[in-house]
Every structure is written in C-alpha cells, then in structure tokens.
Design goal:
The protein is α+β, with helices and mostly antiparallel strands. Helices cover about 20% and strands about 35% of the residues. It has one domain (about 5-70). It has helices at about 15-25, 50-55; strands spanning about 5, 10-15, 35-40, 40-50, 65-70. The protein has a five-stranded antiparallel β-sheet. A hairpin with a 3-residue loop joins β3 and β4 (about 40-50). It is globular.
Amino acid sequence: MTDTLLLPNFGDLVSLQEFIEWCKSGYVDDDAGSGYYSDGRVYWRDLPAKPSDIKKDRIKHSLNYRYVIWFNE
C-alpha cells in the first residue's frame, strides 16, 4: 500500500529538475533533510528522493513524480 500524504504548508516543493541540480551542486545531501517524490498535490512517504541516489542517476521517472518536497532537518 502506498503511503500518500497531502502536501503540508512547510517544506520546499521544487521541480524534479531543480532538485537534481540541488543534489549535484551539493546544496542538499542525505544528512541535511529528507525528500519525497510528489505530483505537486500529494507526496509519497514511501518514495524517498535521496540526494545520494540522485547523484548516482537513480531517479524515479514518472509523470506522477514531477516534483520533490524537501524537508530540512
């Protein structure tokens, strides 16, 4: 079962392309917070968008995953 949650009023919602740029530039890393794939309305708590995976080109590609919600910790 997919753990789908509505987007909260906090966190940074960015396009997947912008998130990829953040990761490759070192702006975010696995220790700085947590990210999850989103369609811009909801996000999937069981589909983390880890900067270390993004740097290794392990990116989920889907029309549903056009955004990432990033939570600083």
